[in-house]
Amino acid sequence: MAFARISKVFLGAALPAMVLSGCAGGKGPELPPASFVSNQAGPSEEYVIGPLDQLTIFVWRNPELGAKVQVRPDGRITTPLIADLPAVGKTPAVLAEDIKASLSKYIENPLVSVIVDNFSGTFSQQVRIVGATEKPASIPYRANMTLLDAMIAVGGLSEYAAGNRARLVRYDKAGGKQKEYAVRINDLIKRGDTKANVLLAPGDVIIIPESMF
């Protein structure tokens, strides 16, 4: 009888610890930590214009043909002499060449440049943070962006977030399927564990569940 009582006490004390241990981390492999060297890497692929991007179009010696425009939700822009020109999915250099080709009907050998002032990016160039954050959002990806950068952008974790059970979903182009990785956001932003900071990729989705207790 004494042994039975001791067993019950032991199990009663151990069970919460086992549950906590099981909830400590997310499922899936972990990504390698971001390093200072990685953050200092060279430029990435050229930016691709997305819906709602703000553009400045400059036409040398013909300023009246230039404009400041926002890419419409349908992916097109309208400038002087050019209507409904597709812009989404193009680099600024490619769009400049398209504008040049259209303006060539009206002026001789136009020189055109396109600058992205404020960018939103296509969905494939955004990082989406959903779930238990202060302000879930889609943010434009930039070269060498880390998990810490993304969490700062959304204001950190909400009060009841289970940050160490968060998951990062990434599309594997080589394998043609999505992969899930465990990320330890609590360790990163509450304990300052730099090993929990990982490099992000365009199109990543970070899912943060709420704590169950």
UniProtKB/TrEMBL annotation:
State its location(s): Cell outer membrane
Q: Indicate where this protein is primarily found.
A: membrane
Its keywords, alphabetically, are:
Cell outer membrane, Ion transport, Lipoprotein, Membrane, Palmitate, Polysaccharide transport, Porin, Signal, Sugar transport, Transmembrane, Transmembrane beta strand, Transport
What membrane topology is given? Multi-pass membrane protein
- Family affiliation: Belongs to the BexD/CtrA/VexA family.
Looking at the keywords, is Cell inner membrane present? no
Q: Under what name is this protein listed?
A: Polysaccharide export protein
Where does the SLBB domain lie? 125-208
Q: Which domain of life is it from?
A: Bacteria
**Alphabetical list of InterPro entries matching this protein:** PEP-CTERM_polysacc_export (IPR017477), Poly_export (IPR049712), Poly_export_N (IPR003715), SLBB_dom (IPR054765)
Which Pfam families does the record associate with it?
Answer: Poly_export, SLBB_2
Q: Which GO terms describe its molecular function?
A: polysaccharide transmembrane transporter activity; porin activity
In its UniProt entry, the species of origin is given as Sphingobium phenoxybenzoativorans
Gene Ontology BP annotations: monoatomic ion transport
